[in-house]
Model the fold of this input.
Amino acid sequence: MPRATPIRREKVIDERGNIVELAIWKVPPTGQNPAGIRYRLAFVRRGEAVPAVLYDCHPPKGHHRHVQEVEEPYSFVDVEQLLADFTEDVRRATGDATWPGR
Done:
């Protein structure tokens, strides 16, 4: 089995110039990551270097998220829930209840 198999890879610059980057991979399961999913989901506002919302999973931290510069553990359920939670956090951070609007 390959070390990491891409599930989703997407980078979009929206109409406001914000960057959304989604990268999700299937990886061998481990004790800390029994689901075998690794990811990095980022929302970066135009003109900023630090993501306003960032979800990632890497050793030794495991599943966690950064929202408005606050880092906290994230309870991973599945990829569908991950994308829904990320979308909801971006909506709160931007104040746009219709984000991503596509």
Notes: The mean pLDDT is 92. The CA atoms of residues 1 and 43 lie 31 Å apart. Residues 79-94 form the longest helix (16 residues).
